[in-house]
Amino acid sequence: MNVQKTSESGPRRAGAAGNPAPHEVTRLAFEVSRRAEAMGIVDDAPPRDASGIRQLVNRVRRAGIAASAADLINNVETPTPRELADLLTAMVAALEASPAPKFEWTGVMRVFGADDLAPLLNVSVSSLKRYQAGERTTPDDVAARLHFVALVVGDLAGSYNDIGIRRWFTRKRSLLDDRSPASILRNAWDPDDEGPMRVRRLARELVTLSAT
Length: 212
Fold this sequence. Notes:
By secondary structure, the protein is mainly alpha-helical. It has 2 domains: about 20-95, no CATH class; about 100-210, no CATH class. Helix content is about 60%, strand content about 0%. It has helices at about 20-40, 50-60, 65-75, 80-95, 100-110, 115-120, 125-135, 140-155, 160-170, 180-185, 195-210. Helix 2 (about 50-60) packs antiparallel against helix 3 (about 65-75). The longest helix is centred in the N-terminal third of the chain and has 17 residues, at about 20-40. The radius of gyration is 19 Å and the shape is globular.
């Protein structure tokens, strides 16, 4: 592999550590946007400029996520590409780690009906409807499973429509030992269990393919 050396005092190339290429910022903005949309936080198209990114960041903040990232971008009049890339990278991690059932019930149920979603979350349909309506607080374990499903839906949304996403969950997959994702997401599963992690990796492969 050839490595091009540059002077530390000279200008950096686009895409170098101090100055990411424009498409990298666009990609990261898309990653944040699709997660936030699947979680029910936003429903707009991915932002295309710094102003749009600022609006996206502030909407995510209103959901109680990535407040420090929002403070950073709001305190800089014209953020650099490096600042935007670092901020968006932090937001991707924050969204991945932050169940938000208040928003995610709405986001996930744009795709799934209650009868289809309840078995994936190991709850009864009647309990699901109470959680969705805010009549009962969503338990932490249910919120974690709901968040996981929302993230998988976000991964699949770039390749499938809503019908395709629902069918993806019920089709057997060779990479899951000829089991369907829905058959793995049964009973009191945890997102960190091996089976669900394999389901997420399978969904993430579609993101990689669609980006190439």
